[in-house]
Amino acid sequence: MNEKSRIPDEETRKLLLKNLRQGVLDLQEFGFQLEEVQAGLDKHIREQKMKRLETRRENLNKVV
């Protein structure tokens, strides 16, 4: 339980740092992909709202 942490050797530190940097890049890329999906969903929702407005306008014009 009182075992001291040892500092990894140079090669292991380089590998761990490389893996950490790769993980950061992967997360950034994933974030951009999520933003693209969100933008697509936002566009789809706007289109649905516009269709509903057009339908309401058409129905309103039919009544008059």
Helical content band: over 70%
The proportion of residues in beta strands is under 5%
The dominant shape is rod-shaped
Structural class comes to mainly alpha
Could you name the ranges where pLDDT drops below 50 across 5 or more consecutive residues?
none
Q: Biggest sheet, open or closed, and with what strands and sense?
A: none
The pLDDT mean sits at 93
Number of strands: 0
Gyration radius, rounded: 27 Å
Q: Which series of helices and strands comes N to C?
A: H
Number of domains: 1
What distance separates the N and C termini?
A: 84 Å
Q: Please, how many helices? A: 1
Q: What do these coordinates show?
A:
The protein is mostly helical and 64 residues long. The protein has one domain (13-64). It contains 1 helix and no strands. It has one helix at residues 10-63. The longest helix has 54 residues, at 10-63. The chain is rod-shaped.
List the helices and strands and how they pair.
Blueprint: H1 10-63
List keywords for this structure.
single chain; mainly alpha; 1 helix; 84% helix
Task: Write a brief structural summary.
The protein is mainly α. It has 1 helix and no strands.
